[in-house]
Amino acid sequence: MDFKNNVIRAIAVIGILTLVTLTILPGCNFIGQADPEEGTTLGDTSDLANGNGFEQCCPICSSTDITGPDAEGFFVCNACGQKWTQDDSSVDIIGDDGSVVTQLDANAATKPIVVGPVGNGGSSGNSGSSNNGGSSNNGGSSNPTVPPISTTTTTTKSLQQQLDEIKDRWGDVIKPTIDKDGNITVESPDGKDTGLFGFKYSQKDKCFIIAEDAWQRNFGYNELYDASSSAIAITYDTMRVYFEHEGLEWMIQYWKGQYGLVLVGAEIGTYNRPAGSSMSTHYDCATDDMKMLQSMDIYRRESSSSNKFKYLFSRSPAFTWWCAGFVPGTLGAGKYNPSAEETAMLKVDSKLTLQSPEMAQAFMQGLREVKTIEYNGATKQKRPITMKEYATVAEYESATGVSSKFCLEEDGVTVRVCWR
Question: What is the pLDDT of residue 104?
Fold first, then answer.
């Protein structure tokens, strides 16, 4: 057993180091606490203007030799002369006549990039460019313009450039690719969805997620993992929901906390075993035909004295046995193991669609019997919890001051669960 635990710990450490490396792929920043409106790449324009935490650059030539914004909100590139304005969601390229010639998606890349030809009739990159038999000012203005493009093109171009760079650097070791859902992953020789050490990056949700055929699926789950995870800097709160249905003992387990030294996030794991099993705490991971539609929103309390929570990120609905999401950030800056008070700063609001109304009722009975949330840090604390039940979604959503609650949606199979 000790050998097996050491192997698990070694693989987990490799996984953490891999996650740290992969954060360069999607251009993540390390704040991990952005509002939905703020985006995850350029951030607040005030930060761009004063250089706090973000690198401002020209959307045409990528030069950082820029000035602005001026009183009217314009930026100007001193290298190519391009003029533009921007906010949290878009970058407007300004033409010679002062009009907006095209708009780029500010969240499409770490920094705006050239997509398509630069220039219009004679600016750099076209027939009058200095690279094609003419001067850069022959037949066009000195300020290049960009023809209208779609934000989809921008995203694809940016992502491909990032993948090409990774392939150049790591091509002999890993082969990065994009799966059918648009997630950054690696090519698997056997065709399974294994990800890189079990992890992928969701372009849709802007967070790290778990691959469906991750190596962890072979090990199932038991309480030993929770007891030992803090030794490798994985510190969290966890809540287990037990119930029986159609000859199986089910365990739906929830986690939230700090993963490694650079990530925060949450998980929902779906496990079961035959009814009448031994008193062991071990469960098997749910099989493919037992996957359920799962989603969650993760929030962070604004301060220890506040009852207000700030949105961090979401996991979109997906049929899975393990709904998980992680973003760059910390709960206790510089701490190997954040305290129980710090992990309690996170709140998760989730949805789980069970396989039948009977299964949903059994799951809710398990929720009624939940009495504790466990903290897996060095102190191994438990704190009491009472899951408050609401008859309707409207009542559930209006109970803003209740941190642990659940309700059944009108379809009779989807259960909302909020816990902190």
Answer: 72
**The two three-digit tokens of residue 3, written as one number:** 């050998």
Query: What mean pLDDT is reported for the chain?
Result: 77
- Chain segment 146-167, per-residue pLDDT in tens: 444 333 344 445 666 766 776 6
Average pLDDT over residues 127-133: 42
Per residue, the 3-state secondary structure of 250-283, as one string, reads EEEEEEEEEECCCEEEEEEEEEEEECCCCCCCCE
To the question of pTM greater than 0.70 for the whole model, the response is no
- CB atoms inside a 10 Å sphere around CB 390: 17
Residues 6 or more apart whose CB falls under 8 angstroms from that of 13 comprise 232
Please check whether residue 270 is in contact with residue 322, taking contact to mean a CB–CB distance below 8 angstroms: yes
| Measured torsion, CA atoms of residues 142, 143, 144, 145, in degrees rounded to the nearest 10 | -140
> Averaged over 308-318, what is the pLDDT?
96
In the numeric block, which tokens belong to residue 217? 């699926």
373 within 8 A of 226, measured Cβ to Cβ: no
Write the CA distances from 175 to 10, 62, 72, 324, 367, integer angstroms: 23, 27, 46, 23, 43
What is the sign, positive or negative, of the torsion defined by CA atoms of 155, 161, 166, 171? positive
- Residue 26's nearest CA partner among 376, 328, 271 is 328
Instruction: State phi, psi for 134 to the nearest 5 degrees.
Output: -155, 170
The mean pLDDT value for 200-214 works out to: 94
- CB count in 10 Å sphere of residue 36: 11
Task: State yes or no: pLDDT of 350 exceeds 60.
Answer: yes
Q: Which residues lie below 8 Å from residue 287, measured CB to CB, with a gap of 6+?
A: 321
**Which carries the bigger pLDDT value, residue 6 or residue 173?**
173
CA angle 227, 213, 314 (to 5 degrees): 70
Question: Which is nearest to 348 in space by CA: 261, 224, 264, 270?
Answer: 264
Query: E-assigned strands of 124-262?
Result: 176-178, 183-186, 199-202, 207-210, 234-245, 248-259
Amino acid residing at 406? F
User: 156-178 as b/e, with b when 16 or more CB fall inside 10 Å?
Assistant: ebbbeebbeebeeeeeeebbbeb
Whole-angstrom Cα distance, residue 114 to residue 180? 26
Least confident piece of the model among 45-49, 94-98, 363-367: 45-49
**Strands of 414-419's sheet, edge to edge?**
309-320, 292-301, 346-353, 414-419, 405-408, 388-390
CA distance 242 to 81: 64
Arithmetic mean of pLDDT, 243-247: 96
**CB of 323 closer than 8 Å to CB of 268:** yes
